[in-house]
Amino acid sequence: MMVRLTCLLLLFTGAGSLVRAADPPAKAPAPGERPNILLIYTDDVGYGDVGCYEGSKTPTPNIDRLAKEGIQFTDAHCSAATCTPSRFAMLTGQYAFRQKGTGIARGDAGMIIKPDTFTMADTLKKAGYATGVVGKWHLGLGEGEADWNKKVTPNPADIGFDYHFLMPATGDRVPCVYFEQGMVVGLDPADPITVSYRKRIGDAPSGAEARETLKQDWSHGHNCTIVNGISRIGWMTGGEKARWVDEDMADVFTEKALAFLERQKPGAGENKPPWFLFFSTHDIHVPRIPHSRFVGKSGQGPRGDAMVQADWCVGQLLDYLDKNGLAGNTLVIFGSDNGPVLDDGYKDDANEKLGDHDPNGPWRAGKYSLFEGGTRTPFLVRWPAKVKGGQVSDALFGQIDLARSFAALTNVDVPSGALPDSRNELDTLLGEDPTGRPHLVHEAKALSLRLGKWKFVPPGKTKEHLGPWEMTAVKAPGALYDTGADRGEQKNLAAAKPEKLEELKALLQKIRNEPDSF
Ligand code: NG6
Ligand code: CA
To answer: What is the mean pLDDT of residues 279-303?
Structure first.
């Protein structure tokens, strides 16, 4: 099997190019040269949801600052059109389709990234960094159906994070509690937590029964246990004092992130290693319940207000870097885990109050879709010590490449077989390579593929619009678009360019068979 695959690989890579056995040796950084890394990862934020991107009517001055002082990417992608597989791919450098069970995770899913996986966090830990993650996780915890009253393992400490403070899954899934260093925060042992995704538990009225009491009504799904006046997916009893208050969540995450940074500060005469913080906002995922000080600030209802709130969080972190003299040598990266969605299960006026704001910018469809809007998301990079501000990059970039690019940046040897689909694209990340990756897979149940500007969408059905959706049927042999000349993927060139279509199909098959970096 291996021999056959290797032969295939050699065939497809063609003359002149060699199979990548290992990364080119990274230049050893001068002492003190390695930057801190702040990876800001937002949820369901579309290309047009950030003020500096085409189509946006949302004020995000703090995020826009990253573009002004760094690089704004126009063709950067998360790996998948939903959260769990995108996060999995970014942290493991492996396309999610290679591992079963990487679809949207339940709130009681076991940890999806196995402890023996060498991750982005392991990479930076190996480089000597202090590593932390604060915010949305949605990659499972424990062995599955965890007992939340005890220490839950495995957890992010087993995949390279020294510190974690998390929302276990999503805001719309139980358990609705924070989770820090393996434990639920603020749990009263006299009021234990039980969580179930199999059957109803407890006798509290559900979101389906007590609809008139809800702070924000649901539109589809989300009608099980009510927490803080909002009904969720799944059932939960107990843990009353530990339950989060949605309105305070952005403040809580920001405070925990700043506290992590504060702990990395060297004392007088002390040396401390650089740090890596993965700051993962809940905004702008549903339920969108921003703090009262952001309500009405976007003119777009709760969805836009949640974006203003996310921007505030970014502002707090950037201010901290400024005040502590850290801005110059901190690599700040801003991204999103999938494309935009409007009605994602709650009646929060996302469609009604949209106005002329364009969440997916010029791209087609959004979250859940195989079209560009599914993964083509805002992506900004700032590192004042190394990167000139005010740049725009049209390079094809995949978040899946962050892990190996960080390895190159910090001069870490990646163990053989690790980060299998991740490429060292440090030059692209820092604005030196205007082309980027040659190709990139996009996952949304099925797989689509970009090769340069060309895009292949396989035959089958995929989501259209931003919720409520329609299903679009792509007929055999699939669709071929030129995303350069035809940004909205309107002109299917499959019949006009059958060889190009075959080239992309064959390449996708090759990548399916064998990770790209080998
Ligand atoms: C869907 C949920 C949606 C959201 C999504 C995951 C329903 C009807 N829809 O199943 O609201 O939670 O899963 O989003 O329940 S993600 O960004 O975390 O992938
Ligand atoms: Ca998401």
So the answer is: 98
